[in-house]
Amino acid sequence: VYSEQYLIERIAAKIPSEKRLPRPISAKNGLLLGIGDDAAVVAGRNSLDWVITCDAFLEGVHFLPEATPADSVGYKSLARATSDIAAMGAVPRFFFLTLAIPANRTGQWFDQFLQGMARAARELDIRLAGGDTTQFSSVAISLTVLGEARRGRTIARSGARPGDLIYVSGPVGRAELGLQLLQSGFGRLPRHRALLRQHFYPRIRGGLGSWLADNRIASAMMDVSDGLSTDLARLCTASRVGARIDAAHIPVPRIPASPAIVRLKLDPLQLALHGGDDYELLITLSPRNVAKLRRAPGFSQLTQIGEITRSKCILLVDSGGSTQSLHPEGWDPFAKPKRK
Ligand SMILES: [Mg+2]
After folding, report:
1. Measuring CA to CA, which residue among 180, 148, 192 is closest to residue 45?
2. Separation of CA 128 and ligand 1 centre (Å)
3. pLDDT score of 14
4. What angle do CA 282, 304, 181 make, to 5 degrees?
5. pTM for the whole thing?
6. Which of 149, 292, 325, 339 is packed most tightly, with the most Cβ within 10 A?
7. How far does the centroid of ligand 1 lie from the alpha carbon of residue 279, in Å?
């Protein structure tokens, strides 16, 4: 079985496509940035560019069939797709929904699904512009999202430079904590419901992404959708750099001290390093831009976790000062089928 990354490389090699274009970004048939980033960038009019992404959300692959409320399916599918627009520093505007559902989900389930998606659309200030609906044996959702950015201001994964500082926009590993509690049967207890919120209804850092782009603060950016270890490796590969991460600085999830949960032996650092679905932003910036960050939306949650290095490896420094390689062990649908 091959990895998702290898499949993407084969797709890009076989089908006529444009990949990363050399910086500074230059227009080629209107396509400013192609396959290989959070979203593509297409030249628009009046000094604006279109930022475009698509995203699949499948029952049994991306969400647990029985345990996931219908309104979470609606909310999360749109939020996670829109996160890739925020991760480019763009403002989301329109989306297209392709929805395939079984006939027995067209009643109450469908109403609740729509409620969740409508709430996400209002919070993200994004409008449905079209789509397609069909019948299928399970729930399968494809979302295409369009956003807008000022010409040349989008932030790709490829711009990190040695000496840049690495930030995350908030705690990572909370969605994975929720997923593991859900899979262990804790999700049904009301007192644990708050711990599932980031898994069912992830918060998207849209305002921060576009602020960083408008003020030209970040050198590279992406969302942490598949886990910090996996997504940081992608950013470093795209930028042809390495990284040094301080374990003690990573904002890890707080695990409740109730005896039943303690028995699960969940490790907050492992959840934070390899858990996916948080949709916080992973940001690199030059040290000379640090002072400007104080005015960023959500500044208090921004945490510096390390720095970009010249050597191409990714190192994790633990609290005792010893160093080990950090391997990508986040979400890969082909490496770990049915993990979610
Ligand atoms: Mg992404």
Report:
1. 148
2. 21
3. 79
4. 65
5. 0.90
6. 149
7. 8
